[in-house]
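Hi R.,

As promised on Friday, here is the backbone we talked about, encoded as structure tokens. Could you run it through your design pipeline when you get a chance and send me back a sequence?
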């Protein structure tokens, strides 16, 4: 099968973006998705974004998010910005504000000036069963307006704040991000039994009340240069712990994101707003083998 694609990135978090409206991909296997994402034998990407027709009347598009390992996830902040640039550049819409269906929710995305895209990520999910997170047997402590939990692993125990931004995150504060054992402990946190759907492990260093540095070990993809939902989750966790104030500049290896969450004014139901770049790298076509 010959497949047309676009390679894009949002702050270094890279994607293969595919028009599934005008190409039939209904028979793609998990092995074929892994082949496309493979950096040695395929195109190479952290994740694949598959654009489809919506299934709900209030959405103009739908997109699915497929990890480097072929698994599918619910949400991707950096990918949502790339989606906007893709449908605009491909003339699939002439609107600058777009409603898109992702998993079981609706996102409102807006193209801004200078290549930036703003995404209304909705309110964070803090109800533990919905994250999902099962804290039974874990030590806990209250910090300002949230509860942190101590995750035991074979490499030590870590205080984390569980947050979902459409996908689950476990955020921890570290003193020095460049010395944090992200690659060692990230997989242990990702597969911790307290997170039955696995979890993205966030490592946050606080620079000041409006600035953080962040690394994220993403479930199914490993550490990425940037993670949009991870940036949102980290800011939510920091604000709930009383150590950050909105807006927050999030510095990742791949670039900078601006996260706003008006918790002080509107409480936990306030939407998280994310603004950041989205760029096209190249376009091409590839023959996908039967796998």
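Update: got your reply. Pasting your designed sequence below so it's all in one thread:
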């Amino acid at each position: 099968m010959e497949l047309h694609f676009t390679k894009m990135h949002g702050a270094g978090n890279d994607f293969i973006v595919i028009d599934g409206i005008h190409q039939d991909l209904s028979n793609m296997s998990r092995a074929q998705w892994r082949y496309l994402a493979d950096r040695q034998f395929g195109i190479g990407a952290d994740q694949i974004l598959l654009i489809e027709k919506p299934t709900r009347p209030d959405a103009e598009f739908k997109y699915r998010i497929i990890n480097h390992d072929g698994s599918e996830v619910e949400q991707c902040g950096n990918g949502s910005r790339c989606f906007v640039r893709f449908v605009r550049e491909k003339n699939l819409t002439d609107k600058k504000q777009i409603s898109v269906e992702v998993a079981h929710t609706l996102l409102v995305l807006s193209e801004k000036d200078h290549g930036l895209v703003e995404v209304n990520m909705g309110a964070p999910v803090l109800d533990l069963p919905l994250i999902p997170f099962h804290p039974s047997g874990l030590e806990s402590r209250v910090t300002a307006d949230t509860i942190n939990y101590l995750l035991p692993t074979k490499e030590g125990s870590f205080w984390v704040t569980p947050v979902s931004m459409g996908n689950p995150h476990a955020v921890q504060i570290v003193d020095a991000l460049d010395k944090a054992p992200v690659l060692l402990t990230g997989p242990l946190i990702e597969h911790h039994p307290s997170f039955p759907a696995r979890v993205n492990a966030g490592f946050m260093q606080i620079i000041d009340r409006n600035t953080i540095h962040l690394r994220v070990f993403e479930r199914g993809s490993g550490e990425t240069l940037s993670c949009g939902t991870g940036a949102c989750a980290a800011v939510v966790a920091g604000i709930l712990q009383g150590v950050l104030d909105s807006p927050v500049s999030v510095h990742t290896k791949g670039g900078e994101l601006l996260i706003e969450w008006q918790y002080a004014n509107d409480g936990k139901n306030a939407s998280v707003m994310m603004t950041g770049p989205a760029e096209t790298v190249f376009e091409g076509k590839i023959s996908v083998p039967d796998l």
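One thing I noticed while checking it: The longest helix spans residues 77-89.

Thanks again,
M.
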